[in-house]
Structures are given as C-alpha cells and as structure tokens.
Amino acid sequence: MTATSESLLVPFALRLGDDALILGQRLGEWCGHAPTIEVDLALTNLSLDLIGQATLFLDYAGKLEGKGRDADRLAFRRDAVDFTNCLLVEQPNGDFAQTIARQFLYSTWQQLYLNALADSADDTLAAAAVKCVKEVAYHARFAAEWVVRLGDGTEESHRRMSAGLDWMSRFVDELFEMEEADRALLAAGAGVDKAALRPAWDAEVARVLKEAMLEALPQRRTLTGGRLGRHTEHLGHILSEMQFLQRAYPDAVW
Amino acid sequence: MRAVWGVLAEVPDPEIPVISIVDLGIVRTVTAEPPRVTITPTYTGCPATQAIERAIRNALDQAGFTDVAVATAISPPWSTDWISNEGRQKLRAFGIAPPPRGDGRGRLTEERPAVCPHCGSEETEEISRFGSTPCKALWRCRSCAEPFDQFKCH
C-alpha cells in the first residue's frame, strides 16, 4: 500500500461509514412505529447492525486521517456537506413499503459490494467486509421477502410497493458510479469495481420483482451527488435530530 | 494461562447469562503474563461487547491479576460454529434452540427448522428472523405450542 492510496482510503472508509450510519439512523426512526412488533424488532435490529458497521468504518477513517477524530466525533460533529453517503440511504422512510424499497435496493447492492471488498488489499477493510456481509445477508433476505409479500399481496400493498420502488429508483445509479478516487483505489487493489456489480444487482432485483408480480424499475432521471457532499434536503433534518445532543452539549459523555 | 482461562470461563454473557463468554466462543486468544485477552464481537453493533470487556476486566482484577488488557479483533469473524458443545447444551436447557452447525454465509439459503428446545419437535415455524437480541430469532413450536428463541446461524 503506497502513501497515495492510503490517503485515498480516508474518503473511501468515510463513504462506507456514512452510508451505514445514515441508513441506521433512518431505520431507528421506526422504533415503536412499525406495523407489528416483529417488524419493529427487525427494523431496529437492522439499524443496530448498520450503526455497528458505521462505527467500524468511521473509526478506521478517523485513525487513517490522524486528527484524533473517532467514529462518534465524525458522526456527531460534521455538517451535511461533509457527509458522503449516497442519496438513497437518506431518503425518507415514507410508508413501510417505501422503507422496504430503500432497504431492498441498498442491501442487495451492499451485499455484492462487501463480498467484493472482502478481497481488498487493505486488510482492515477486507476484515470489516467479511464481518459485515454476514449481517447484510440477513438484511437483503428480509427486504426481498417483504418486497414479494407486499408486491404479491393485496391491491393496496401492491400499489404501495410499486410507489416505494418508484420513489427510490432515482437514486440507484449513484450506487454504481465510479469516481476518480474509486478508480485509483481499485488500481491499487484496495477498492471495488462498482460498475462491475451492476449486472448481478440487476439480475437479483429483476428476479425478486418478478416473483413479487411487480413491474421492472422505472427509468427515471437519475439524481446523484451524495458522494461529493451534495445532498437532498432530507439529510439536514436527519442530522439536526441525530446530532442535537453533541451540538447542544459539546463533548458530553455518559 | 490456564488460570486466566479459568476466570474467563466464569464470566457470563450479559444477555444470555446461562453461558459463559468461553462457551460462546468469543475469547480468541489469551496470554498470561501480563494478562492479554482478545475477544471478537458477535455482531458489529452488539451493545453487549462493551459490557463484556468491562466484565472481563473486573473478573481478572478480582482474581488478583494486574496490568490487564482487553483487545477486540474482528478477523477472523465470529461464527456460531465456535459455540462449544457444552454451550449448546446450556442454551437448549435454558430454552434457546442452539444454532445449526455450518458455515454462516452458506447456510442462509438452506436453513432447516429449529428444533424445539422444550419438546424436541421439528414441527416448528419461524415467527420473526429478528428477535430480542441481534443473535436470536423468534420461533414457535407447532407440537407443544410454546414460543422459543433460536440462536441464529452466523
């Protein structure tokens, strides 16, 4: 690993951590509000896994950065423009079907992504990927099962599942975008060729949507920019709630 | 070294106190002088990990060990295959179906029904894959009608 690629690892680990953190926070909003107690437990379990994963990646980013920032500091003391999560994970929960749509599209991608990252030349990232993919396999399966249950359910659940996928479909392309830094890290053997994951993702999504009696994802104008810190209006609202305590009482501890 | 393992074998898992952290397979390496213990988390977000670290430190302190250090390692990742046979028996006796043996990643698509820890029946059904802790799923026995937890394959 050269010094150059090490400097590329900081934003790379940040992106992974930010995705997991923001999606974990979003899922946490369901606590006490889900349709049934079992679903409530499932969504908060997913949230807990994702926040654990965020801690791994953000701690690593902070360590590489060498400015003394740990996962908490990075989570609670950065502004929206400094977050590099993809736009998909910050989208609002909407109804349960919209949440499931977001989870299905993301977890299917995350599982492929982490399986590829497991072969990274960076030992820390590879170890984290191997650890996290075991959890994400459960997430992907949970989401896919609900896509089928809602899609192939009643007229109402089918309509809502379609609407949820319709909303989220605009944010899919961003998952597969390769920035210059992605290509450099890939060349160094540490990154992931995201574009190469697309056929497998398309196939899995198509398989589940077919089983769910749902139409293929609609072709919508793509929205992107999260990786560069250009976010939808929703991220600021998430942060205002998530960061409230550390903003109001800096450095407060238990 | 054996003395350190002996102390650790008495440290209960904070969420399933019938089994020790050694039964659970999360203690990876131990060195005696000075005492260095490496543990591996079950799930990345499991809040018990921090409690376990403190419990290990307290137990070794009370047993008279000084200069104790506890480290966490995520590689190789913890697997339910590391739960000891004794641990599996204790889980069953406590009413939790132990996880099937096998590679966690490969097993996901070919799960067999959990065996009811109360009556031994395989006529069981999953109620929710996510239960009261990250490591457990909720099941119901169709033979004896009792609900039960299953330790998830991981």
Quick summary of this structure?
The complex is a heterodimer of chains A (254) and B (154). Chain A has 254 residues and is mainly alpha-helical.
List the defining traits of the structure above.
heterodimer; A: about 250 residues; Ferritin; B: about 150 residues; alpha/beta; GMP Synthetase, Chain A, domain 3; 3-stranded mixed sheet; 4 helices
- Euclidean distance between termini CA atoms of chain A: 38 Å
What's the shape of chain A? globular
The major beta sheet of chain B can be summarized as:
4 strands, mixed
List the chains of the largest interface with their residue counts. Answer: A-B, 29 and 23 residues
Strand content of chain A: under 5%
Rg from alpha-carbon coordinates of chain B: 17 Å
Helix content of chain A: 55-70%
CATH class of chain A: Mainly Alpha
Question: According to CATH, what is the topology of chain A?
Answer: Ferritin
Radius of gyration of chain A: 18 Å
Tell me the number of structural domains of chain A.
Answer: 1
Mean pLDDT of chain A: 95
CATH-level-2 architecture of chain A: Up-down Bundle
Q: What's the architecture of the largest domain in chain B in CATH terms? A: 2-Layer Sandwich
Overall structural domain count of chain B: 2
Strand content of chain B: 15-25%
Helix content of chain B: 10-25%
Q: Give the neighbour order of strands across the main sheet of chain B.
A: 4-7-6-5
Give the C-level CATH assignment of the largest domain in chain B: Alpha Beta
Helix vs. strand class of chain B:
alpha/beta
SSE diagram, text form:
The complex is a heterodimer of chains A (254) and B (154).
Chain A: H1 3-28, H2 37-65, H3 71-76, H4 87-90, H5 96-117, H6 123-151, H7 155-168, H8 173-176, H9 180-187, H10 198-211, H11 234-242, H12 244-248
Chain B: H1 2-8, E1 27-31, E2 36-39, H2 48-62, E3 69-72, H3 85-94, E4 96-97, H4 104-107, E5 124-128, E6 136-141, E7 147-151
Parallel strand pairs in B: 2-3, 4-7
Antiparallel strand pairs in B: 1-2, 5-6, 6-7
